[in-house]
Amino acid sequence: HIDLHIRSGETVGILGGTGASKTTLVQLIPRLYDVTVGTVKVGGIDVREYDIETLRNAVAMVLQKNVLFSGTVRENLRMGAYTRPKGEVEASLADVYKRFPRLEERKNQAAGTLSGGEQQMLAMGRALMAKPRILLLDEPSMGLSPLFVGEVFKIIQEVSAAGTTVLLVEQNAKKALSIADRGYVLETGRIVLEGNAKDLLDNEQVKKAYLGE
To answer: Between helices 146-161 and 86-99, what is the axis angle to 10°?
Structure first.
């Protein structure tokens, strides 16, 4: 019972409490779940018509629980570009290192030894290695210190400003709406509110339910 759209280049926030179906919704886009009812389109094409590698080039997802490989930071990043032409990998690495200087400093370090915030940056960097048209972020601030939350959201803004479409699932409604263009509020698999992000920040229902005001 969800009907929504995301324009190219937009940042859209998906808000809602536990059990609102936020994660299920975003996992349908890259076909982590099969779409059995209704339609999900990317670039006007039903996702079921894409071969999976083409879809993974178009859509990259950072999961709520980071799934990192046991190798180094650099090896994890290179895995993000496994569908890209080999000649583009080093250039993509340079772009990611420019955006995440901390990852370049730790490029030879085992991924599992990074702090929680650094692991989140690595997961984001790995997703960006695919040069996706759409970046899906599932609770990127979960479990991070306020310092890292600020850094992660700053990077999301930079990625958006560079032209990547961003769909951001977040329980931190204030942070999400502060950088989003538009937002949707879900409750048990239904949209109960939608609109301009600034308008949602000022909405009394949102303030009471999600901003603690």
So the answer is: 130
Tokens encoding 171: 């329980």
What's the rounded mean pLDDT across residues 172-188? 91
For residues 127 and 77, give the distance between their C-alpha atoms in angstroms, rounded to a whole number.
8
SS3 207: helix
DSSP state of 47: G
Neighbours of 131 (CB within 10 A): 18
pLDDT tens track for 30-70: 998 888 889 999 999 999 999 888 888 899 999 877 678 88
**Could you give the CA distance from residue 71 to residue 102 in angstroms, rounded to a whole number?**
17
Dihedral sign computed on CA atoms, order 52, 54, 57, 61: negative
